Amino acid sequence: MFLILSLVLVIYSLIYYYFRHKFSYWKRRGVETYPARFPFGHLGEFYLNKKSYIEIFTQYYDQSKSEFCGIYQGIDPLLIVKNLEDIKYVLVKNFNCFMNRGVHTDFNSNVVSATLFRIEGDQWRNLRHKLTPAFTSGKLKAMFETINQCCNGLDYALNKAMDPKTGEINVKMLAQRYTVDVISSVGFGVEANCLNDNYASPFFKLSQEILDRTALRTLLIKFQFFGPSYAKILYKFFSDRSKENQQSFFNMINSIVENRQKNKIMRKDFLQLLIELKNHGTIDSSNDSIDNPNVFDKKDSLNFEFDMKTFVSQVFIFYFAGFDTSALTLTMMLYYLAENQDLQKRLRKDINDCLRKHNNKLTYDGVMEMEYLEMLLSETLRLRPVLGHLFRVCNKECYLPSSNLKVDVGTNICIPVYNIQRDEKYFPNPNKFDPERFS
């Protein structure tokens, strides 16, 4: 009995001192930090559904008096960077030291996981090099007419969507149907016709199923932010129906590609660009201007294998990242316009002026000239950013310029986008919707 009690005491002591050492990482480095609790670190209220992720980070952003502060995701240290010079250093000037995003992924079981948001290191660098020509202004301009055709279905959809008694419209659902139509057309050459009440479209059904937040799926999403140490363990014991949906998506895209190649079908869409990349190892960019031509100087990318899993992964992220984020941004912008009818009138005038300038036709160049529309969109994204926080992992030892703080390899970095864009230091009266900030 004494031996058992002694063994338990020793094990308890080892565990206690292990976590105590882990939770002293920031204090040992002289970084502002706060008491952490086992086993969740500083995110306990998030995992227990007491606070949102935004609320947790807002608490520490506001509480911190320095240019950065340190908290813990589980037992993993996370540095919240507030200084704009440091942020530029992480995301732009020295981004080669912060290529990875630190989101745990089971690449063996997830058939659509090989995206730029998840892969790391040289594989990320090479894939980025290969995909850059697919997103030039010339390629986007070539897709504009297809997008324009989808817009024509909005008149019908608006009349059908309005409740005849209240005049209300479910704007979010309308925006989702519109973005499904656009992305299906410019992405895969498929007419989903969701605006024409075609809810049976496989793309629309899959999007609704994958975005359906079941209790288990919500838990799995939280695992991704549980800290790398815990996430790797937890993902081995949990899975959900989304894997079946992802496999269905893989099979559907594979079938479309096989049909195109068998029947020699050519379209001006994202899928065709990926087929070109898969067959020839590159995407033609000879007639396009590249924002950053230096990205094409990487010789190591020539050995990159663009297999079918990587192919479908890019289609998957193109569709689902664009579908939900675009729909939510459009929904919020329409909400702000509904609240501010004076802004509606000015936007309408700006659009009509541009249309008259282009013979009453909606053109790519005309849309690019709609300055007030861009101001409204920028202000919407300031208040409602697509990603409230950006995460990076240090892959090479470096020092933050504002304080010369040493950042160790493996350190998780958080850029609090939501909080910076609502900080009075940068945006006076930050909670007010004011497009003139971007004039």
From TrEMBL:
<keyword id="KW-0256">Endoplasmic reticulum</keyword>
<dbReference type="InterPro" id="IPR036396">
    <property type="entry name" value="Cyt_P450_sf"/>
</dbReference>
<keyword id="KW-0479">Metal-binding</keyword>
<dbReference type="GO" id="GO:0005506">
    <property type="term" value="F:iron ion binding"/>
</dbReference>
<dbReference type="GO" id="GO:0005789">
    <property type="term" value="C:endoplasmic reticulum membrane"/>
</dbReference>
<dbReference type="InterPro" id="IPR001128">
    <property type="entry name" value="Cyt_P450"/>
</dbReference>
<comment type="similarity">
    <text>Belongs to the cytochrome P450 family.</text>
</comment>
<keyword id="KW-0408">Iron</keyword>
<dbReference type="InterPro" id="IPR050476">
    <property type="entry name" value="Insect_CytP450_Detox"/>
</dbReference>
<dbReference type="GO" id="GO:0020037">
    <property type="term" value="F:heme binding"/>
</dbReference>
<dbReference type="GO" id="GO:0004497">
    <property type="term" value="F:monooxygenase activity"/>
</dbReference>
<keyword id="KW-0472">Membrane</keyword>
<keyword id="KW-0503">Monooxygenase</keyword>
<keyword id="KW-0812">Transmembrane</keyword>
<keyword id="KW-0560">Oxidoreductase</keyword>
<keyword id="KW-0492">Microsome</keyword>
<dbReference type="Pfam" id="PF00067">
    <property type="entry name" value="p450"/>
</dbReference>
<feature type="transmembrane region" description="Helical">
    <location>
        <begin position="316"/>
        <end position="338"/>
    </location>
</feature>
<dbReference type="InterPro" id="IPR002402">
    <property type="entry name" value="Cyt_P450_E_grp-II"/>
</dbReference>
<dbReference type="GO" id="GO:0016705">
    <property type="term" value="F:oxidoreductase activity, acting on paired donors, with incorporation or reduction of molecular oxygen"/>
</dbReference>
<protein>
    <submittedName>
        <fullName>Cytochrome P450 CYP4422A1</fullName>
    </submittedName>
</protein>
<keyword id="KW-1133">Transmembrane helix</keyword>
<keyword id="KW-0349">Heme</keyword>
